[in-house]
Structures are given as C-alpha cells and as structure tokens.
Amino acid sequence: MDKRVVRSIFLWTLVSYSMMVSAEEPVLPSGLENLSPEPDVPMGLGESALPSGLDYGNLEPDLPAGLDDAAEFEGDNLSGQDWTVDGFAELRSGLWVDQHRYQKSRPLNEARLQIELEKEYSGFTVAVTADFIYDDVAADRTVALERGQGWLDLRAANIVFSPADFMDVRLGRQTLTWGTGDLVFINDLFAKDWNAFLVGRNVEYLKAPSDALKVSLFHEIANLDLIYMPRFDADRYIDGSRAAYFNSILGRITGTDAITKVDRPNDLFHDDEFSLRLYKNIGAYELALYGYDGFWKSPGGADTVTGDALFPDLTAYGASVRGPVFNGIANMEWGYYDSREDRDGHDLMINNSEQRLILGYEQELATNLTLGLQYYLERMEDYGDYRRALPAGMSAAHRSRHEYTARLTWLTMNQNLIWSLFTFYSPSDDDGYLRANLRYKYDDHLSVEAGGNLFWGDDEYTFLGQFQNNDNVYTALKYGF
Q1: Per-residue confidence at 345, pLDDT binned at 50, 70, 90?
Q2: For position 413, what pLDDT does the model report?
Q3: For the chain, what is the HEC assignment?
Q4: What pLDDT digit, counting tens, does each position of 419-458 carry?
Q5: What was the pLDDT predicted at 30?
Q6: Number of domains in the chain
Q7: What is the rounded CA–CA span in Å between residue 205 and residue 88?
Q8: Per-residue pLDDT for 373 more than 80?
Q9: Burial, 300: exposed, middle or buried (Cβ in 10 Å; 0-12, 13-18, 19+)?
Q10: Fewer CB in a 10 Å sphere around the end CB: N or C, the chain?
Q11: Which domain holds residue 252?
C-alpha cells in the first residue's frame, strides 16, 4: 500500500472519528472514566505483586519494581503545581556460563541512575524520564538514543493534554505497547530491546521508547488509538555486539567478529510508521482490532550486493480478545504480516508474509501461586516458492513454527520474595529458552535480584538454538526513591 494512501486513511480516520464523537456528549463506557493515558502493559512486563492478567478490572499499567512506593519531592512551585521526582539507583552485573570467543568478556556490568520528572500545568502534563548509565562492557559510550547506546538512555520526554472531553494526546518520546501476549508479540509492533532482554537487564527494558504522536479517542461505541511515528523506530536488535547469533549470510555463529551492518530507513516523514487499535469492552471481555504500516522491526532481509541487512516494507492486520474463562484469564490474538516487497515469496533474501497466532490462559493455582500457559504459531505464506528459491544444500525453515510457553510465579514472605520461572519450547525447531528470576524486596526502597538465561537447541540456525552460546547469570541491587 502506497504511503500517501496510508497517510490519507490515517487522517480520514482521525477526522471522521472526531466528528462522530464530538457530535454528542457521550458518557464513557464503564471502566474508562479513570483510564490512564499510559499504554496498557502486556503480561510479563509489569512487576506488580499480582501477576498481570489476574486483576483484570484494573486497567492501570503496573509500575516497575522500586517505583511503586517512590516518594514525591517538592520542587519549584510553578503555576501552583509541584514537580514530582521519582527514580532509582541500580547496580547490575552478569557472567557468561560458557563464553563464545566472539563475545564481550561479560554480558553486562553497569551502574544505572533513573530520574523521572513530572509536572502538571493548567491543561497539560510534562514528563521526562532519563537513565544515566555507566556501562563497563560497552566499547563505545557515545550516546545514540535510537540504538540504546551510550551513557544516556532517554526513556520519556513528552507532553500529555486533552483538547476535548473525548480525546487524549501524548506527543514526544514514550513507551508504546498493546496486545495480549506474555513476552510474545504479534500486533505490538513497537520497538523492543532484545539485547537487554537476553543479557539480564530488568524485563521493563524489553520495551524501547519511540518518538511518536498518540491520539486516543473515546466513545460508547468503541475507543480508538492512533499512533504516528514520523521516522522509523527499529528494534534494538541482536547484531553481535552484545550477544552471539546465527548469521545466515556467513552460515555460522557470529558476534563481535561480524557485527551486522544495516541499511535502515531513516528519512523523516517519508520512512514513517502508522499504528491503530480499535477496541471495546463487552462485559468483562476486551475485543480489539489492529493495523500497522511501516517496516519489519528487526532486519527481515538482505541486500545481495552489499550484504547489508534490510528492513523491508510491512503492513500488518490483527485482532484479539481477552477475558475471564473458568477461574482464570484467557486470551487469543491473531495477526497477518503482509511483506509487501515479496508477496509472491520468490525472493529468498526478503521475509515471506506470515500469519501468527497466540492462545493463552493464566490462573492462580493456589494462594500466591500462578501459572500462565501460551501456544504461539508462525506460519509462512508461499512456502512452496520459498523452497524452490533455496540454493542446493541450504537448510529450509519449517513452514509452521510452533512454540509453547509457561510462566510460574510464586509469591512468598508476605509477597516480598518473588520466584519466577518462564520457559519457551518449540517442538518444531526442537529448541528452548529458560528465564529464571528471584527478587526480594527488603523494604519500600531496597530490593535485590538474581536470575539467569539458558538456551538450548539441536541446530545452531533455529530461532532459540542460535543463542545457546549466550547462557548467563546475573545479580542486581536496586534502591528506589
């Protein structure tokens, strides 16, 4: 679909929906009166006492550990309002279990100070969150915000205002998320930091910030989120600089010896992204439709001449439903990825189109003991054309990649000691990934954490098997204020 057509659809949708909801003074649907302008956090990204999904009536996202009890400090008294200052200081260090020769000496060894500022003015709110980092492992400490590199990671810098009773607007740097999966994403096509996820940083850092305009429109018929990013925000993808991976061009595991070179779309207002979500609560169930127009978020192709990794054009459509079933919470989410640069599947160097599906269920088995299960499917379109394009002797990917996940969470010692075990297993690829974490909250400010990441697989080229040289353990000490 041409970018001009997408822009026209985006603007037409915004204007027509605004005209519809402004034609009357609707009463917001039940549960939306106090809806936070912050995005809903998928299961697995929050760190509340109760695992995400069990307290279904609470639409407020969970704050990261250490911030929920943060104190407020008075600042300059401007316009009759006070600045709030929250944050934390953290030391985090890790070790490789079995180091690969093309890896850094350690997965991470860093000190982090986060400062979160917020101030309410008459008619709008200003929010800034910045992480100041000393990263002993990084070779280059020059700040590159889009890659998450350097001594500064700007997590948020935005203003929030409501130009009408039915509209909220957030403009600037922000963390965006939606969808129903637990650490598995289909319609959440916002930037992720996969390096942070694999080497032992707090799970909140899986979500990378984006520079965007988000418009939320509320009506009794349905609610609509429209997001525009004027320049492509790619994932902070695995490129070999932090974790080793299988390089399909070289046909082997690589790391610091062959850091991925990319040709990234970077033109302001030309290489842009559009996302939308139309959703509605029907009783205790939330139904949603999704749309996206932009690019594959991690490299999804390669230039046959230069060898540079590419981010091909991508349009995605999807739907989800989430709500109570039996004694727990169930979810289903589907998406279709239209890889517009290779719709017939003939180009081996560009990702084929795909269909993706999540089926999930979460239930409290006993007091403070919760189990979450998921089934995830990726199914390649035009598989016959893909097989015919393969060079002789090259291993073919499966048409359907199946994956099962299980999350077990146990809260002990008055919910101050949290045991968490998350496993991924793919029977089609015969590989897997185990994430173990133990966190103890000493008091309202101080917490300690330990954990590990373990990968396995029969083949080095499968999705999880390629990371089996990245097994690591880590510890952290955190003080929130």
Answers
A1: confident
A2: 97
A3: CCHHHHHHHHHHHHHHHHHHHHCCCCCCCCCCCCCCCCCCCCCCCCCCCCCCCCCCCCCCCCCCCCCCCCCCCCCCCECCECCEEEEEEEEEEEEECCCCCCCCCCCCEEEEEEEEEEEEECCEEEEEEEEEEEECCCCCCCCEHHHCECCEEEEEEEEEEEEECCEEEEEEEECCCCCCCCCCCCCCCCCEEHHHHHHCCCHHHHECCEEEEEEEECCCCCEEEEEEECCCCCCECCCCCCCCEEECCCCEEECCCCCCCEECCCCCCCCCEEEEEEEEEECCEEEEEEEEEEECCCCCEECCCCCCEECCEEEEEEEEEEEEECCEEEEEEEEEEEEHHHCCCCCCCECCCEEEEEEEEEEEEECCEEEEEEEEEEEECCHHHHHHHCCCCCCCCCCEEEEEEEEEEEEECCCCEEEEEEEEEECCCCEEEEEEEEEEECCCCEEEEEEEEEEEECCCCCCCHHHHHHCEEEEEEEEEC
A4: 999 999 999 999 999 999 999 999 999 999 999 999 999 9
A5: 46
A6: 1
A7: 14
A8: yes
A9: buried
A10: N
A11: 3-480
CA 209/CA 211 separation, integer angstroms: 7
Residue 118 CA to chain centroid, in angstroms? Answer: 23
Q: For 296-311, how does the pLDDT look when each residue is reduced to its tens digit (9 = 90+)?
A: 999 999 998 888 999 9
Residue reference for tokens 């054309």: 385
* Chain centroid offset of residue 442 CA: 29
| Residue 408: CATH number of its domain | 2.40.160.10
Closest CA to 210 of 170, 160, 252: 170
Average pLDDT over residues 60-65: 43
Pairing verdict, β 262-263 and 309-310: parallel
Does position 64 have pLDDT exceeding 50, yes or no? Answer: no
Burial class (CB in 10 A: 0-12, 13-18, 19+), 9: middle
236 with 256: CB under 8 angstroms?
no
Rounded-to-10 torsion of CA 377, 382, 384, 390: -90
The answer to whether 114 touches 92, Cβ cutoff 8 Å, is no
- Provide the sign of the torsion angle of the four alpha carbons 452, 204, 439, 60, taken in this order: negative
What phi, psi does 4 have (nearest 5°)?
A: -65, -35
